[in-house]
Write a structure and sequence with these properties.
The chain is of the alpha/beta class. It has one domain (2-212): Rossmann fold (3-Layer(aba) Sandwich). The chain contains 7 helices and 7 strands; from the N terminus they run βαβαβαβαβαβαβα. It has helices at residues 14-26, 43-50, 77-84, 102-107, 119-135, 157-164, 191-212, and strands at 2-5, 33-38, 61-64, 88-93, 110-115, 140-145, 169-170. Strands 3-2-4-1-5-6-7 form a 7-stranded parallel sheet, with helices on both faces. Strand 6 (140-145), helix 6 (157-164) and strand 7 (169-170) form a beta-alpha-beta unit.
């Protein structure tokens, strides 16, 4: 299966959540986890390499995709094999739209879209969703509130929730704004980090299981 973390705007915590999810699912699933960094900045991969200095076993391997190729999945065979695999293949995309992502976005099983309630994030999220529509992507779209401040009243929350729910599934539980997520590594989740992400990630896993009729 292919689970892709993607947005149209950087700064929403996409890579942080991708790392957290890879760590979280590694502690729950018997399936092999493969991570592919498809972001220009290669933040996931560089963090994974940096964490080799830690005296902690790695949970998964991270591979760089598309560094020199204009269309890395032009033969489709690799992409189809990843999609049909029983392993969990997790992609982290850049916070921008690029034609080289098109095939992956079309054939992903799930696209996880972190967003915030700022005007810029709200607009860019809808641009990304419209882009998926133009591609005729059949991937399940899962929206997750990121850096959510439960003490703040977001004036556009009701309207934004209603709008994005037209295009996919909005997880009920947000990822609250927590400083502990700024110190993420690729080898483990601290107790505080796990507590911060467990509710939305459990919802996400339950949705995947029900949709594919499997158990991660």
């Amino acid at each position: 299966m292919i689970i892709t973390f993607g947005t149209q705007k950087g700064g929403t915590g996409k890579t942080t959540l991708a790392i957290a999810f890879a760590n979280y699912i590694s502690g729950l699933s018997q399936r092999k986890i493969n991570v592919f960094d498809f972001d220009y900045q290669k933040s996931f991969y560089h963090k994974w390499k940096e964490d080799e200095l830690l005296d902690i076993p790695k949970l998964y391997d991270v591979e760089i995709i598309g560094e020199e190729e204009e269309q890395p999945f032009s033969d489709f065979e690799t992409l189809i094999n990843l999609k049909e695999s029983e392993e969990i293949n997790l992609f982290d995309l850049a916070g921008t739209l690029d034609a080289k992502y098109s095939d992956l976005l079309i054939y992903s099983d799930f696209i996880v879209i972190p967003f915030e309630y700022s005007d810029v994030s709200a607009k860019s999220t809808l641009v990304f969703v419209n882009f998926l529509g133009l591609l005729e992507s059949q991937a399940e779209r899962i929206f997750i509130r990121s850096k959510y401040d439960k003490g703040y009243k977001y004036l556009n929350q009701e309207g934004m929730d209603a709008e994005i729910s037209r295009y996919g599934t909005l997880l009920k539980s947000p990822v609250f704004k927590r400083n502990c997520l700024q110190n993420m590594d690729t080898r483990k989740l601290t107790y505080e980090q796990k507590y911060t992400v467990k509710n939305p990630f459990n919802e996400l896993i339950e949705y995947i299981n029900e949709t594919l009729q499997i158990s991660l």
